[in-house]
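Duplicate of #3305? Posting structure anyway:
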């Protein structure tokens, strides 16, 4: 893909609409292999029951996606928003099965006002985090492609109880879908209002949600055992990220290691 044409338009879409979709990041036959391995690992290690399985820091259990996470097209678009020294903050695998119901409108960390670790609303109009959806199956209206609200990333809050922005469960006239073909990657401003959508088919929808943060965003409150998490979250329920095993880090492509090093266990030495 020509960076001076297609990728610049993706950066523009990300800034104006709140998301973009880059096609053909993973092609066959690699795609089928990644999908099969990732889907099995998510179901086997899920923290939640059917119909929607989920696994945090999927790389602990499965590295099939690892060779693709340093893709240069994804890197170029991400750098266009966050600058060159972005880091991977979360890697969460989902299998959205038949019967999954609609869920609430929300924004992601650090904007999600439900989280104990968050930037209080009204939050500033600054992109501090990107949420990427690695589509291992097609994202269609029928199989539960994520609901999004175009332009909502420029708001200073998201729908929730006590907010004037509407019911966080209600359908909206301006809602759209995050659509794409298998092998594509959607990059979303983490402020964008989005919601889980019903899967009305008889097939699973498989995705890995990988979030990107600039170097300056404090991720310590997301790390289990970190003193800043203890101070901010305490015994409360909030999103978290487990340590990345050293052998997974060592297996990662050279250009990806700087984006993963902070996820290593405390005291790790890299060379």
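Output from current build:
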């Amino acid at each position: 893909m020509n960076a001076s044409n297609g990728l610049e338009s993706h950066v523009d879409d990300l800034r104006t609409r709140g998301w973009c979709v880059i096609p053909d990041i993973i092609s066959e036959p690699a795609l089928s292999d990644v999908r099969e391995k990732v889907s099995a690992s998510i179901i086997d290690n899920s923290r939640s029951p059917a119909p929607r399985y989920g696994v945090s820091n999927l790389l602990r259990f499965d590295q099939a996606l690892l060779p693709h996470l340093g893709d240069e097209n994804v890197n170029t678009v991400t750098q266009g928003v966050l600058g060159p020294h972005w880091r991977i903050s979360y890697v969460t695998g989902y299998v959205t099965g038949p019967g999954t119901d609609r869920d609430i409108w929300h924004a992601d960390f650090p904007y999600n006002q439900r989280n104990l670790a968050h930037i209080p609303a009204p939050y500033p109009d600054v992109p501090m985090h990107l949420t990427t959806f690695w589509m291992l199956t097609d994202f269609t209206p029928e199989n539960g492609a994520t609901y999004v609200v175009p332009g909502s990333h420029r708001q200073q809050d998201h729908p929730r109880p006590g907010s004037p922005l509407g019911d966080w469960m209600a359908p909206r006239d301006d809602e759209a879908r995050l659509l794409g073909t298998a092998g594509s990657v959607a990059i979303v401003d983490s402020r964008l209002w989005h919601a889980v959508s019903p899967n009305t088919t008889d097939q699973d929808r498989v995705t890995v949600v990988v979030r990107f943060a600039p170097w300056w965003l404090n991720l310590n409150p997301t790390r289990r055992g970190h003193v800043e998490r203890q101070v901010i979250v305490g015994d409360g329920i909030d999103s978290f990220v487990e340590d990345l095993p050293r052998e997974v880090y060592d297996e990662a492509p050279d250009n990806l290691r700087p984006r993963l090093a902070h996820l290593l266990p405390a005291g790790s030495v890299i060379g």
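Confirmed duplicate; merging threads. The first helix runs from residue 3 to 16. The CA atoms of residues 8 and 77 lie 7 Å apart.
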